[in-house]
Design brief:
By secondary structure, this protein is mostly beta strands. It is 11% helix and 55% strand. The protein has one domain (2-246): monomeric porin ompg (Porin).
Length: 255
C-alpha cells in the first residue's frame, strides 16, 4: 500500500506540471458518457455540473432508472483533475410495482496522470454505497483503477480493475472484476464503444453503446448488453438509453 501511494504521489507531481491544454485535450478525447460499465477516470470542466439519467430494461428485472450528478470543484491544479459524483437511489419498475434500492452512492474520482509522452492516463475511483432505512445492511466500498490509452487519432483503449466489498467494508469479502473497453470515433461527434466485463463470480458481460454529442451540452447514448453467467444457462439481454447534460456556464467563479 505504501508503494502504491508513493507512485500516485509521483504521478501527481507530474500532473501538476502539465499544461491545462494537454489535460483538457485528453479529457475531451477519453471521456465516456455512455450506457456501459466503462469508467473513464476523467474529470469535467471546472464547476460545470453534469447530470446523467439512464433507463435500462431486461426481461428479468423490468426497467431500472438511475440519476447521478457529477462535479469538478475547481480549475486549480490538483482539484481540476478531481470529479465528485452523487448517485440517488435506483428505481426499479417491474411486475406492476415501483421499488427503490435503499442506498445512495458517493464517488471520488481523481486523474493522477493525463496521457503524455507515451504514458497512459492513470486514474482511481473510490465509491461508497451508503444504505438507509435498511436495518442490518452495511456500507460497501468499490475501488477502481482506470488506465486509458489513445490508439491513433480515432481510438481509445480502456482497462478497469476493481475490488468491491459485499458485506460491509471488510477485506474478507471482496469481489474482483476487470473490464477491457474500446472507443472508436465514427465522426467528431459520435463514438462507438465495445467492452467486456469479467467478475470473479464467473459472470461475463459484453456491452456496446454509442455516444452522440449534441449541441448545447447534451449527449445521448443508446446501449445493449449480454450477460453470460455460469450459474444460469440462459443469457440475459438488456437494452436502454442514457441522457447526459452538462451546464455550459460554471456554477460560480473559476479559480
Amino acid at each position: 500500500m505504501r508503494s502504491i501511494i508513493c507512485v500516485l504521489f509521483l504521478f501527481s507531481n507530474v500532473l501538476l506540471s502539465q499544461k491545462k491544454e494537454v489535460q483538457d485535450h485528453i479529457m475531451n478525447h477519453q471521456t465516456a458518457n455512455i450506457l456501459t460499465s466503462i469508467s473513464d477516470g476523467q474529470p469535467a470542466p471546472a464547476k460545470q455540473l453534469g447530470i446523467t439519467v439512464s433507463s435500462v430494461a431486461d426481461a428479468t428485472d423490468g426497467v431500472e432508472y438511475q440519476l447521478s450528478l457529477g462535479y469538478t470543484p475547481s480549475d486549480h491544479k490538483f482539484w481540476r483533475n478531481t470529479m465528485l459524483q452523487f448517485t440517488v437511489p435506483t428505481m426499479r419498475q417491474g411486475q406492476g410495482a415501483l421499488n427503490f434500492e435503499k442506498s445512495v452512492g458517493i464517488s471520488w474520482s481523481h486523474r493522477w496522470h493525463a496521457e503524455q509522452d507515451g504514458i497512459p492516463t492513470i486514474s482511481t475511483i473510490s465509491t461508497v454505497q451508503l444504505p438507509y432505512d435498511e436495518p442490518g445492511e452495511k456500507t460497501d466500498l468499490v475501488n477502481t483503477l482506470v488506465i486509458a490509452k489513445n490508439i491513433g487519432e480515432r481510438s481509445v483503449a480502456y482497462i478497469n480493475a476493481y475490488a468491491e466489498t459485499v458485506r460491509g467494508i471488510a477485506l474478507d469479502a471482496v469481489e474482483l472484476g476487470y473490464l477491457l473497453g474500446y472507443k472508436y470515433f465514427l465522426n467528431p461527434n459520435t463514438a462507438l464503444f465495445l467492452n467486456g466485463v469479467y467478475h470473479n463470480a464467473a459472470d461475463l458481460v459484453l456491452e456496446t453503446a454509442l455516444q452522440v454529442d449534441i449541441a448545447g451540452g447534451w449527449t445521448i447514448s443508446p446501449g445493449i448488453s449480454l450477460n453470460l453467467s455460469q450459474a444460469d444457462s440462459d443469457a440475459t439481454i438488456s437494452a436502454g438509453i442514457m441522457l447526459f447534460y452538462e451546464f455550459q456556464k460554471p456554477l460560480g467563479k473559476i479559480n
